[in-house]
Amino acid sequence: MRKYTPKDDVQAKAYYTDRYYVAPQVPKQEVESDEVFAADLAAIKAKFDVKEAFIQVEQMIVYINASDIYGVLELMKDKLTYTQLSELSAIDWLAKDNTFEIFYQMLSMTKRKRIRIKFFINNGEAVDSVEKLFRSADWSEREMFDMFGIEANAHPFMKRILMPYDWQGYPLLKTYPLEGDEFAAWYEVDKIYGKEAREAIGPEIRDTARVDRYDSERFARLGFEVPKGTEITGNEERNVEDYQEDGGVFLIKKYSKKTSTIVDDPQR
Amino acid sequence: MAQIKNRLTPFFENITFDREDNELILNFGPQHPSAHGQLRLMLHLQQEQIVKSHPDIGYLHRGMEKMAENMIYNEFMPTTDRMDYIASSSNNYGFALAVEKLIDVEVPRRAKVIRMMLLEINRLMSHLFWLATTALDIGAMTVFLFAFREREYLMDIIEGYCGARLTHAAIRIGGVPLDIQDDFLHQLRVFLNKLPQNIKDYEDLLDANRIWLMRMEEVGVIPTEMALSWGCTGPMLRASGVAWDIRKEEPYELYDEVEFNVPFSDKGDNFARYRIYMEEMRESAKILYQTIDMYEKCVKNGETELMAHAPKYISAPKLDLMTQNYSLMQHFVLVTQGMRPPVGEVYVATESPKGELGFFINSQGGPYPYRLKLRAPSFWHTGILTDLLPGHYIPDVVSIIGTTNIVFGEVDR
Q1: Measured on CA atoms in the order A245, A250, A254, A260, is the torsion positive or negative?
Q2: In 3D, which of B411, B126, B175 has the Cα closest to residue B313?
Q3: Residue B14's pLDDT band (boundaries 50, 70, 90)?
Q4: Domain containing B230: what range?
Q5: Is B19 inside any structural domain?
Q6: Could you tell me the end-to-end alpha-carbon distance of chain A, in angstroms, rounded to an integer?
Q7: What pLDDT digit, counting tens, does each position of B265-290 carry?
Q8: Three-state DSSP state, B50
Q9: CA–CA distance, B69 with B61 (Å, rounded to integer)
Q10: In-domain check, residue B12
Q11: Rounded to an integer, what distance in angstroms lies between the CA atom of residue B251 and that of residue B257?
Q12: Position B13 pLDDT exceeds 60
């Protein structure tokens, strides 16, 4: 039977996992164990629906509804002194339940605390832009769109940021292969020469260690040098060049490659 | 091979003349000597004044986050070098610390001291490089040569430690691979003893230099709100009146044991940023002197361990691998299959020379990170050019890009 390869997640997988292996968990603490976080959570809870909240590795993680994000961040910025949005991106859970998990990494410099606000959206849904609150979200949301195809409502300039504007596909999706898809492989050729030139130009060489002994265009053929572009048959004569210092070298006789033989048989 | 005709048509994108509003669009980059990498700025100009700026990035995008999802944790370490390649050990360290928090291991003290030395040497290297290139952009060739000379000494010290000058990969998850070489401390002391004079030389050349002051003072003013809103960190934020240094506020390693100040300014202009870089070099030197003492104390106390002891995640020391069968088995599994951190996530921010370098890792218990997000400070320091440049003149663009200290390895990742 052919080996099953899932199409919805083509990223690298562990090739062996013990049948009885149960992955341990990074410990979670109750929010009540930290006074500052507890007060912040209470302030958020007073106005918005909080699904889950806990502390993991010294930071509080709060799950909210997708529609509340602007309000929650506004509250955190204005009332709770979380004045910086350090980071914003998504996690692809499409293979599991067709959702994206969006996270907003917040920093309060007066409290010296970091909170991660999270929510889930379904595939194809958009998030509300928080660019009005934090200008840093301008570029983060563009990057999220570029990498996952998640649009931000009311964003002033929802265009790709890292990939070219005319790119197809979203590189950080789990369905996108590491080495790129068909479109990526032929992007330059299609754009510069047109699709019909694919055959003449050939696929991009991705093996960085490739050496083609019959290619006189790109490779020096040491010992078998020919003018550039010559058709190689494989029957070229070896170019032998002898070299000897003027006046000879002490104790060394003139060495001639032509007359010398290489001993292959160690037993002789 | 036959010549294939291409479809590229001549396109004069550099200049657009519009009779209506007389606005000129200038394409600054992507190949521009003072763009410090592959930055393309589309500048809308009224005469010489910028009315709109649109930074375009992505020319150095290598998809590191994607690569990280397809590499085991230790395998990704050399890739982090290629982010901020001016101070690559800080990237190594940020990643190592994030994974250490995830797997919850404590690094031995001696390794911590060595790491701090490497980090501060990297900070000095980065700041010297910043000073050299920015001064060169402004036209101060001598400062460039001076600062590169000092940076060369530091690169030699680093090369003696890890064999590489630019891409160090000098830090491992769980510690450091090697002890410092015999003459490391001596070389470092020699360098540090000379550094105050060197910094004074730069300042003598620049501080009262009329051209330097005209290009720097009152140019590129970033108000505090703007800096916070744009996610600025590091010297960019400290020059705008927020004394926030992660080494001080959320201390990692042994930064709570060393004494240093956090220079900051409320001016927010280019000159304030320049002053902060200079002061930070002095503070780094101060920290390095203290780490030398800490290292010598470690040696005296007989603390020899360099890697944390956590057989589930980290290979045993070489001696054990050569003598203990079980250690060798563990090592084999860790190298071929990789460590499997617990299920969970972590976001760890460290103070890299450019600002807050954050690693967000979501682990699902497999040998590959399920999601790894790199929060590189330069990304936002480039973004702020959108709002910062309008109102300035073309020569200011060069000095503003200079003082933002952006490195495109980490902007595009």
Answers
A1: negative
A2: B175
A3: low
A4: 64-308+340-377+394-412
A5: no
A6: 52
A7: 998 899 999 999 999 999 999 999 99
A8: strand
A9: 16
A10: no
A11: 9
A12: no
Query: CB-CB: which of B66, B249, B343 is closest to A172?
Result: B66
**The two three-digit tokens of residue A208, written as one number:** 């960085």
Asked if A14 reaches chain B (Cβ–Cβ under 8 Å), the answer is yes
The H or E element containing residue B97 is helix B88-103
Measured distance CA(B374)–CA(B320) in Å, rounded: 35
How far is B64 from A247, CA to CA, in rounded Å? 58
DSSP letter assigned to residue B32: -
Cα separation, B249 vs B261, in Å, equals: 12
Task: Locate CATH 3.30.460.80 in chain A.
Answer: 28-127
User: Total domain count for chain B?
Assistant: 1
Tokens linked to A25:
């968990």
* pLDDT tens sequence across B345-380: 999 999 999 999 999 999 998 899 999 999 999 999
> Which residues on chain A are in Cβ contact (under 8 Å) with B310?
none
Nearest to A25 among B8, B244, B343 (CB): B343
In whole angstroms, how far apart are CA A119 and each of A78, A154, A217?
21, 19, 55
The distance in angstroms from the start CA to the end CA of chain B is 36
Q: What is the mean pLDDT of residues A233-256?
A: 74
Which residue in chain B has the smallest CA separation from A173?
B66
Is residue B64 within 8 Å of B413, Cβ to Cβ? yes
Please, which pLDDT band fits residue A211 given cuts at 50, 70 and 90?
A: confident
Long-range contact pairs involving A203-211 (C-beta distance under 8 Å, separation at least 24): A206/A179
Q: Do A57 and B66 touch (CB under 8 A)?
A: no
- Find tokens 């600054």 and name the residue: B28
Q: If pLDDT is split at 50, 70 and 90, which confidence band does B128 have?
A: very high
In this structure, the number of other CB atoms found within 10 A of the CB of residue B267 comes to: 18
**The CATH number of the domain where B368 resides is what?**
1.10.645.10
How far apart are alpha carbons B234 and B381 in whole angstroms? 10
pLDDT in the model for residue A194 = 85
Residue B284 lies in a domain: yes
- Name chain A contacts of B375, Cβ cutoff 8 Å: 86-87, 105
The highest-level CATH class for domain A28-127 is alpha beta
Give contacts of B100 with chain A, Cβ < 8 Å: none
